[in-house]
Amino acid sequence: MNPLILLFFWCMPIGVLAINLSPQISLSHQMLPENEDLFFPIGKLSLATDTNWRDVQFSLTPEAPNSDNQFFRIRNDKLFSFYSFDYEVEPLYTVEIEAASLGSSNVLVNTFLIEIQDVKGKFDTDGFVDAELANKYPQVQKGDYIIFNQSIVGDIFKSAEKLAGITYPNKILIKGGRYNIIHLRLFQIKNQSVINRIAVTNFLGQVRAKNVRLYGGTHWRFTGQYDPVEGTGSPYFTGCQQNGSTIDFGFSRGNFGIWVVNEWISEIGESNLYIGDQASHFEIDHIEVSDGGFAGLLIKEENGTQDMDQVYLHHLYIHDIGSEGIYLGSTQRDPQHMFHDLIIENCVIVRTGSEALQTGQLGDGCLIRNNVLWGALDWIDPFQRFQDNTIQFTTREGGIRVENNVLLAGGEKFFNVSNQAKELPNRSLSPITVRNNLSWGCHGPIGVYQFKRTDGQTPWVWEKNYWGRFINDYDLVYPDHLSDTDQVFAIASERVSVQILDNIFDLSVKNIGGQYNNSTAIIKSLGNERKVIDQPVFVNALGVTGASDYMRWARWTSTIGTSNNFPSYRTNKGKPFTFHPGIQTCTGVEPSPDQTDYWVMLSWETPNGAISYYPPDDFRLETSSVYHRQGIGIQENVRPCYTPAGLEGRSGVSRGALQKGTRFLPCKTRND
After folding, report:
1. Phi, psi values for residue 105, rounded to 5°
2. How far is CA 438 from the centre of its chain?
3. SS3 for 18?
4. Same structural domain, 112 and 124
5. 628, 623, 605: which is closest to 615 by C-alpha?
6. Is residue 10 one of the residues assigned to a domain?
7. Residue 577: how many CA atoms within 13 Å on its side-chain side?
8. What tens digit of pLDDT does each residue of 223-248 get?
């Protein structure tokens, strides 16, 4: 035999023996089945050789980029899943675990392969639930429809025929997982009650997708809310339902049951969540939408003729979007569908490129209340001119209310509003009422621009709103735009009555304003007052890192107005932009990441001591503030009213207290 080979075999056992003299982490079991709920037990951790180690603590190795640690958790000496695995997507996962001895600097690290077992039959097949399957999962009942599987490229597509036959209280359950696109055609869902909408919800953890498309159907509800009674959501992803509150959005990024996250694939590409194709009477709630895409929610059907009535949007966390946070209703020429009895409330929509909230084609009974809206991060470099307001709405009939909202950091202005009649005479005699809102921080010279064209009859009421901190640096982009204007209201409307009552505006603007651009509106302006007003103080919106000034937040650009759709007329298009981050300045050139005079990596400490590189976004107003006492901003337990048909004038009742055959109406607020 070759002596070199003899030497090799003689040395090998000695090497193995030397390794075994040191302690090693042992895992008793390294296998689990697919389609189980989170915190499924995998195995027990111990030290294979333990002579001197005492009080051993096991943990997942932090910052282990080559592992799948995000899908696992450790409690004491046991390893659990934190993901409902799918064998067909990936059969093997890597987990890196470390062990430390109390009172010692010794740390051991071991890597384990976790094998996913393939499950066959009804427990891994999309379709309707029978009694045996329902018995396995607590939130599932017989007659539900479960979506277990995705395509090889991470898509879910369900035709209308597949989802036919679902009736309340049954629901559509999407298994927790990472998806590319979720595409559901809901045309066969034709429920008749806004109280008992059919839920489409996450199941076995969080549903995370880059894009979601929902088409057709009526009286369905797309929700990530954890509700064990209704059987929706997951107890491990509760979103803004945390710390004893229903509206605590603080450090809730990634913690909603449904997360539509575009991952900045494109800043102006596909919108994250789209609803259209004659969908109506639907509800969207307790969902996070973030990180890129043209609009967070795009809700419309171009040239549609069937109205989207009784739509209810609430408890949505929409942030860091390329353009509009919510883009609802077409801005194109008729024919277009309308919205009646729409409610948008208790939403936090922050750091959007253009308008935080853009709504069009609004009809009677619409209500926008108790939201926090912060947009216009692209005011230096918008995709078009006049796309930097905080909120924009266009009504086609009267009877809408916009109240108790917080608006932050407008570009040209806070409100960009108009009324264009769908038909004459207008069927509604109710006014367009905007009241009890707080608008704080604006680059432009005005708070409201009300367009010239009207229906000639619907009155406007602007009442008891607060206006503060107009910094007037809009000339950096638009050198002479509205240079003669220093007023809160610029009313260009024709013929209609406009009441401007009891508004309070601070010393950063001189006049309450009124008629503008040869307006023929009949304006009544009474009780308005110019004085010092309080800056809004939130529980923990941006932390205490020195970044609490919303006006300093903007998306980086080296040049003003780079979009081909942005005009050069009366703008500074093409000029290098100068940033003044501190002592240094930067003009037209992006500094390198290591130039700390320009760039500072912001971070925030979470309640559990972890470091977050995303702002807290707890936009609850401090309870001691004058604004909170008036019910401004997001509020606990705000609910719409459901009133029996024919009894619209009476007080409302809560969800679930009525039978079918109800009409959906906004609740009256404490200011009525």
Report:
1. -90, 0
2. 21
3. helix
4. no
5. 605
6. no
7. 26
8. 999 999 999 999 999 999 999 999 99
DSSP character string of 60-72: EPTT-TTS-GGGE
Q: What are phi and psi of 6, to 5 degrees?
A: -60, -45
How high is the pLDDT of residue 22? 59
User: What is the total count of domains within the chain?
Assistant: 4
Final residue belonging to a domain, choices 79, 94, 117? 117
**Tokens matching residue 605:** 């400490």
**Read out DSSP for 94-129?**
EEEEEEEETTS--EEEEEEEEEEEP--GGGGS-EE-
Which among 264, 188, 202 has a CA at the least distance from the CA of 234? 202
- At residue 632, the 3 state secondary structure works out as coil
What pLDDT score does 660 carry?
32
Q: With a cut of 90, say whether residue 351 has pLDDT above it.
A: yes
The conformational region for residue 316 under phi > 0 = left, psi -120 to 50 = alpha, else beta, is: beta
Single-letter amino acid, residue 444:
G
What pLDDT does 426 receive? 64
Distance of alpha carbon 414 from the chain centroid: 20
| One domain, residues 89 and 229 | no
Residue count (the chain): 672
Whether the bond between 169 and the residue before it is cis, its omega within 30 degrees of 0, is yes
The phi-psi region of residue 33 (left if phi > 0; otherwise alpha if psi is between -120 and 50; otherwise beta) is beta
- Burial (0-12, 13-18, 19+ Cβ within 10 Å), 502: middle
pLDDT tens readout for residues 620-644: 999 999 999 999 999 997 666 554 4
pLDDT per residue as tens digits for the range 256-265: 999 999 988 8
pLDDT of 281-339, one tens digit each?
Answer: 999 999 999 999 999 999 998 888 889 999 999 999 999 999 999 999 988 888 899 99
Residue 459 and residue 532 in one domain: yes
- 3-state secondary structure (DSSP) of residue 529: strand
Adjacent-strand bridge partners of 643: 663
Residue owning tokens 């607020």 = 669
421 and 456, same domain (yes or no): yes
Confidence of residue 582 (pLDDT cuts 50, 70, 90): low
For residue 378, which of 563, 572, 536, 546 has the smallest C-alpha distance? 563
Its domain, for residue 65, covers 23-117
Q: Which contiguous run of DSSP H or E holds residue 628?
A: helix 626-629
What six digits make up the tokens of 64? 């282990």
Q: Assign residue 484 a region (left: φ > 0; alpha: ψ between -120 and 50; beta: otherwise).
A: alpha
Amino acid at 641: C
Judged against a pLDDT cut of 80, whether residue 278 lies above it is answered with yes
Do residues 272 and 293 touch, judged by C-beta distance below 8 A? Answer: yes
φ and ψ at 10, to 5 degrees? -75, -35
What are the backbone angles phi and psi of residue 574, rounded to the nearest 5°? 90, -10
> What is the rounded distance in angstroms from the CA atom of residue 180 to the CA atom of residue 270?
12
Q: For residue 55, what are the CA distances in angstroms to 76, 205, 225, 242, 567? A: 11, 33, 40, 33, 68
Clarify whether residues 462 and 551 are in a common domain. Answer: yes
Q: Are residues 155 and 254 in the same domain?
A: yes
> 161 CB contacts (<8 Å, ≥6 apart)?
188
Structure confidence by residue, pLDDT tens digits, 191-231:
888 889 999 999 999 999 999 999 999 999 999 999 999 99
Residue 131 lies in a domain: yes
522 beta partners: 497
Q: Considering 83, 117, 151, which residue would you say is the last residue of a domain?
A: 117
What is the C-alpha separation between 314 and 656, in angstroms, rounded? 18
Q: What is the largest CA-CA distance in the chain?
A: 109
When pLDDT is averaged across residues 164-181 and rounded to a whole number, the result is: 96
Degrees (nearest 5) of the Cα angle 248, 254, 259?
Answer: 105
Does 634 lie in the same domain as 647? Answer: no
Residue 91 pLDDT greater than 70, yes or no: yes
Element (H, E) at 184: strand 172-185
Sign of CA dihedral 120, 125, 128, 133: positive
